[in-house]
Amino acid sequence: MKKITKLLLSGLVLLAAAFPVFAEENSDWDCNSTALGTSASFIPEHTIYGLNYQHWWDNFGLDVTVGGYFNNAYSYSDSYLCVGVKPQFQVYKTDPSKKHMAKVYIWGLAGCTGQINNPYNYGDSASKKSEYVFDGIAGVGFGTEVICWNHLSLPIEVGLAGGIPNSPAFGFCSSFGLRFRF
Prior knowledge:
Layout: H1 2-18, E1 34-43, E2 46-57, E3 60-72, E4 76-93, E5 100-119, E6 131-148, E7 152-164, E8 169-181
Antiparallel strand pairs: 1-2, 1-8, 2-3, 3-4, 4-5, 5-6, 6-7, 7-8
């Protein structure tokens, strides 16, 4: 059942990414080249999510996502940190004269995910040490960014990615987000 769900989801993402390819092209698309928002990248055994910043210079773009959390319970404390940097290269864009625009691009990914575990009990915190688990992340793929009303950006990306050394995994990944372009 999981394979069918992944296959259907992959088909829907590919279909959504293919729609802008059939639109009319125009070369004057540089308005609103900076964006702020949120993003989540689902990589096997690793997730990069949080605040997102993106900027485009003609056909080259850079996307940075930073996030994490801190959890301090009475018997256990853990924290999570993730950073992802995606260089992007535009391969197609639609007509900017309409209120809805789209672009198709190729992306690469370099990043890091990490977890800090602090196992402690009442009065016995000196006997247990904190554990730091960090993994390097890398990937490649393609994506589409649909822009509605000249400011609302909806990026959808798919590709292959993985991480090493503590939780080695490699496979299909996807990314979704919501940004405001200005």
